[in-house]
Amino acid sequence: MSHPAAPTSLDKLNKFKFKRLINEDPLTHSLILLGSFPVPVDGSTESEDVMAIVRIEKTALDPAQAQHLFADDGIVKRIALEESTDIYTWLFGWLGEDRERDIKINVICPATDIHIRKYTKQEVFMVRETPELYESTVKPYITAFPAARTQWVENILLGLSEQNKVLYSSPDFMILPDMKWDLKTISSLYLVALVQDRSIRTLRDLRRRHVSLLKAIRREGERVVQEKWALGKGSLRMYVHYQPSYLNANQAGMMGMTVGQAHLLDDIISLEPLRSGAPSHKDWEALKSAVNGRLFEGVPFAHPCFTQGFNSTECVAVQTSYVDEVARSNVAAAYIQTQWETCQTSDDRCLLSYTDPRDQSPTMPPNKCGLGSIPERFIDVRTAEDVAAAFRFSKRTKVPLVIKNTGHDYKGRSSAPRSLALWTHNLKDISYNPDFVPEGCSKANPGVTVGAGVQWGEAYAFAEAHNITIVGGSDRSVGVAGGWLQGGGHGALSNTMGLGVDRVLEFKVVTPDGHYRTANECQNKDLFFALRGGGGGTFGVVLESTLLASPQVTLQTVIVAFSPITARTNELWSILADNGLQWADEGWGGFSTSGIAILINPGSNKEAASKSMEPLVDFGRRLQREGVASAQVIQTEFPSWGTFFDMFTKDHVAVVGSSLALASRLISKRNFKTPANRSALVSGLLAADAATPGLIILISAPSSFPSTGQTSVTDAWRSSVYHVTVVSAWNWNATVDEKQGHYSAVSRSIDNLRAITADAAYLNEADVYEPNYQVAFWGEHYPELLRIKKKYDPHHLLDCWQCVGWNPKSPRFACYLPEENNVTDWDVYHSYSKQGFDIPIQRRVQSRNYRRRDVSGSTGLGVDSDVLYTVPVELGNSVAAVNIDTGSSDLWVVSDACQTDACKGSSVARYPLSTAKLTGTDVKLLYGDSTTGTFASGAVGLETTSVAGVAIEDQPFGLINATDNQIVQFQTAGILGLGFPSGSKIQEARVIGKFGPQVNTDDFIRATATDGPLLSRIAMTGELEQPMFSITLQRSTIDIGGEGVLTVGKLPDGVDSSSLTWVPVRLYDVENGGLGPPIFAPDEASSPPLHPGENTLIPIRPGLEVSTSTQCSRWEIDLDGVFLDGRRVVDSTIPPVGVNPGRITALIDTGNSILRGPEDMVNAIFKIVSPNFDPANVDENPPVPCSVPHTLAFQIGGKMFPVDPRDFIGPRADGDTTTCVADTLIDTDAPRKGSLYRWSLGDPFLKSNLVAFYYGNLTHPSVDPPRIGFLSTVPSNADDLLRQAVEDAKNNGAPPDPTNSTETLVVAPTASAAAAADITVSLPPTPSGMVTRTVNVDARPPTSTSSVKVDSENAAFALAPSLRFGFWVCAYIALLLLV
């Protein structure tokens, strides 16, 4: 039944009341009207209007009337001529007299057979036009067009017709309306651009020289439609028809219109082949013929998984070998580090997950398989002529060349987008000549000659079979003669037997001029010099090299391994540093990580080796006696390098199949010469390893090998002992910001060593964005290398990233992330001298020539047991890892004068008091709440201080000579307070020292610029982008990198301010502990308060009495409420102590490892999650089911900010995977003067949220008030992740602890905190080689603390590798540090 208002008759339809036209579509010949129809009101003669939409569309013409359209009595009654040119005529027609025009009539007369075929209905097929098909079929067809077919275009271009319609004309092209447009309906706007160049017949005729023409068409087309019809750029679609039915029509129309076979003009302009002048099909065919058919297209390694099905035989083979370095090295288009298979600036990639290649998600839509930076084509090089042909081709076509053997390249020099690769992998010849004489020379040496495709695994097997030794790398799949050798080439034998470049006797190389040359000490000496360290891919294509062979060597070997913790690693690396010079002189080489040291000596005997290695062996034996997990000591002898290598490579293989950022530093002998230098070195190593776990010390510098002076590597190699690397890896789906974060992380990490070492690095394993790379890689040899480069490659046919003479603006580097977005500062680093540099001084804020408010920086955070989050701070020449604490305001480090128990039990590097610039002022810092507290006291010193790459001179800091704070026992040298100046005891002491005990507000606030906390002073300079810092800890959907990131002066890259919820910092009035307004800013007292009842906008301060112990000036914000599983928890009714706080607030405190709240609210939460919870039993944490997620959320600024369910509970000490405990939440003191907050939100909250702390204007806060921003990073599937973690723990079981080892960990509170509890930690090894820590703590210890021993037979859950940041790692956090 119809609606009463439905217009079912013409009479009803005529009652339509028109309101407005809401849409029109010329393509469907329709209008859409908005209006109303009347509808009768029940029981009344009245009616009311109801809204209606009417769509009117012209019906199609009746084919049966076709023959009656044109005649004296035909259907068309009247026409009007629109235009006529050559054989084309355009008319409008009327089907009646008194009406609007009904139809548009296009006439082609005379019409050819081609026209007839074109307009006759045809069956349509999809045909992919290949270059071959274009050459053989399409091009001849287009060329055969008769002139008459495009005469109308010629008439316009020659000015013979339609000149009155031309909208723009130049010698190159015209723009005018197309005849398909009715000239009045803007929504169907249709213009055409006709070019004068008759050689452009199709898209395939476009070349680089035409880009300016296309851009001019785009520019003038946009201008015309803007001026004539007021249409912006976003309203237009510009495209080119293909294939054309007439010459060269560029057309512009409204967005949304149908364009058929067309290509967007913007896309055409942006095409890299067009910009670089792509070679033709004939060019490629000619090259293929020149290399005897060995030219093939680049196909990504994972391509079968995208095209042949994920379970196909081909894809399964890829999955099986995805992280196999040998398999990858045998595939032309595969790379060991997969970012070099991708375009890092976009999503152009074809990858699987390196953590689980069987995961199908990378191949699912919308993911696609793209070529990324994989070369477009490869030549399977077999002869010198193959290379010469490639050079000729590149010179003529401008196609970039790259050289590739195995794909081992941390800097991406063997790949480039739209390039041609010279694949040398199949040059596998290898031979040994005991009397090898280089061509043109007379002296003979034993030599092994290898083809460019030979890999170290093959070379070592050959050497073993011939009872000889060749010095090489530590990875079997790395090529011998390529980038490894030409970049320097180090290995475990290099200390006594030299670098690879020291042992090369001859190169056979094709230089870019096409000549096949022999380079040795007797001919082409300059080229020989350049190839011995100047870097691969730069001076020519090496096809063969001959290396010096030595007799077999017997290796004395010592291995010490253990489960690493920071204290043990510190002791290991201290032993290595203390003995570094002696062991280097004695011929020891090898490597070390945080939990192992492997040293070998090819020139010693058992007795001498045993005596030399006593300090290391004694350390390992002691760990065994103490029952340390996995502690091993091995002293043995290997009969040859080959036998050692076979054992070594089984367990030490490079990371394969992942994307990886790497940075490195050469560590000079001077870093080992004094105790202070060695201490600084170990501190730098620990800080770097904390920032980016996985640091490797390679004892591979040729410190005991005499230099010939004929190599081009930096001379710093000869005066170094270590080569140190740091890494940071990411998976297939990392965003651009995340990738940049990883590159930034390793660069910041290695800054810990840049600060104390000479400007020197190994070019093959250096920071991709290495600053001052010319000096770092080659030192004083760079000018000579540049001269040689210009001599042998004058047309610059070879180029690679940061290579000699490179062009950073080359399109071949388009897939590298932009350099300016990474952490390196070229202006600063280029000023460093070759002799060394001091980063804090070079980077000091006050002397940098910056624009105001543009400084920022970031640094990775170290972490100990998920509790002590540290950041490296540079104090002059010392680097200290300090705990970041938003709950206090002062910076302090422990000095070498500290003799309290906490210091005696610490091996952390201490600041030398004898070198300090003392102020004559002492300070005592107090931390804690009513339950417990700690102190740190000592002198106040001044030093140039840097954090996150931003430095300032004469920063006051505490040189602590007495403390009971146990953080110093865990490689944490002190605390960096990030609170407000009014909470600084050091600033207070400095001001009282200057003005006496009667200090007014004005003196104190004015002193902030000179005596205030580090970040406050930096913020007050006005040189930061923003006066702020931000912190992100481990668990984050914005994975900045590493354990976390402290960003100074801005938000982390990729995070927009609008995405955060910003709330004001609570400002105290004087009665509640605030600081009164200064005389120089009296309006601060009368300014509008942030909250009712407050009359000051100065952040809190309880007073300036030296004796006060209340810590204030905190990052405190309002809480709207606390919620558990979506239901609000009743607010606390516990009365405050002597104050009226007025509202519920929370402290945001990185120095607090748990969550603290009012006792009644905490008990209410426990009762909900654990119905049997007994508040009277203070010795027991509430038991909860492990697999039942609970979400504790805090409402801030009207938005919920939850704690990840995985951080709300932890495992029980007995390893039960069914029942857990709620152990991250305890109660705290009631509000009191100076501490009005009810809640303290520590690390579990900060791991679930990115938090930004904005200082604002520290002297006039009413102008720019302080505030805090929050961004939740809890994944939407956090509940599922918790359940999965529990399931994984059940499946992995509970591994026993054969050593039954225990370790007591006491960590003191920082700033806002509460009780520090003694705990016991069990460290059983797991199958994955990782560590599970099981913790039990007395949450509220009595006056005398006690330790609870964990039964190792029931030690907790095994840790799955994929859960490194997962549930079981984080579940025990709060139990370790109750602060």
TrEMBL record:
<feature type="domain" description="FAD-binding PCMH-type">
    <location>
        <begin position="371"/>
        <end position="552"/>
    </location>
</feature>
<dbReference type="InterPro" id="IPR001461">
    <property type="entry name" value="Aspartic_peptidase_A1"/>
</dbReference>
<dbReference type="InterPro" id="IPR034164">
    <property type="entry name" value="Pepsin-like_dom"/>
</dbReference>
<dbReference type="InterPro" id="IPR011145">
    <property type="entry name" value="Scavenger_mRNA_decap_enz_N"/>
</dbReference>
<dbReference type="InterPro" id="IPR021109">
    <property type="entry name" value="Peptidase_aspartic_dom_sf"/>
</dbReference>
<dbReference type="InterPro" id="IPR012951">
    <property type="entry name" value="BBE"/>
</dbReference>
<comment type="similarity">
    <text>Belongs to the HIT family.</text>
</comment>
<dbReference type="Pfam" id="PF05652">
    <property type="entry name" value="DcpS"/>
</dbReference>
<dbReference type="Pfam" id="PF00026">
    <property type="entry name" value="Asp"/>
</dbReference>
<dbReference type="GO" id="GO:0000340">
    <property type="term" value="F:RNA 7-methylguanosine cap binding"/>
</dbReference>
<dbReference type="GO" id="GO:0000290">
    <property type="term" value="P:deadenylation-dependent decapping of nuclear-transcribed mRNA"/>
</dbReference>
<protein>
    <recommendedName>
        <fullName>FAD-binding PCMH-type domain-containing protein</fullName>
    </recommendedName>
</protein>
<dbReference type="InterPro" id="IPR016166">
    <property type="entry name" value="FAD-bd_PCMH"/>
</dbReference>
<dbReference type="InterPro" id="IPR036318">
    <property type="entry name" value="FAD-bd_PCMH-like_sf"/>
</dbReference>
<dbReference type="GO" id="GO:0004190">
    <property type="term" value="F:aspartic-type endopeptidase activity"/>
</dbReference>
<dbReference type="InterPro" id="IPR008594">
    <property type="entry name" value="DcpS/DCS2"/>
</dbReference>
<comment type="similarity">
    <text>Belongs to the oxygen-dependent FAD-linked oxidoreductase family.</text>
</comment>
<dbReference type="InterPro" id="IPR033121">
    <property type="entry name" value="PEPTIDASE_A1"/>
</dbReference>
<dbReference type="GO" id="GO:0006508">
    <property type="term" value="P:proteolysis"/>
</dbReference>
<feature type="domain" description="Peptidase A1">
    <location>
        <begin position="869"/>
        <end position="1271"/>
    </location>
</feature>
<dbReference type="InterPro" id="IPR016169">
    <property type="entry name" value="FAD-bd_PCMH_sub2"/>
</dbReference>
<dbReference type="Pfam" id="PF11969">
    <property type="entry name" value="DcpS_C"/>
</dbReference>
<dbReference type="GO" id="GO:0016491">
    <property type="term" value="F:oxidoreductase activity"/>
</dbReference>
<feature type="disulfide bond">
    <location>
        <begin position="898"/>
        <end position="903"/>
    </location>
</feature>
<dbReference type="InterPro" id="IPR006094">
    <property type="entry name" value="Oxid_FAD_bind_N"/>
</dbReference>
<dbReference type="GO" id="GO:0005634">
    <property type="term" value="C:nucleus"/>
</dbReference>
<dbReference type="Pfam" id="PF01565">
    <property type="entry name" value="FAD_binding_4"/>
</dbReference>
<dbReference type="Pfam" id="PF08031">
    <property type="entry name" value="BBE"/>
</dbReference>
<dbReference type="GO" id="GO:0071949">
    <property type="term" value="F:FAD binding"/>
</dbReference>
<dbReference type="InterPro" id="IPR036265">
    <property type="entry name" value="HIT-like_sf"/>
</dbReference>
<keyword id="KW-1015">Disulfide bond</keyword>
<dbReference type="GO" id="GO:0000932">
    <property type="term" value="C:P-body"/>
</dbReference>
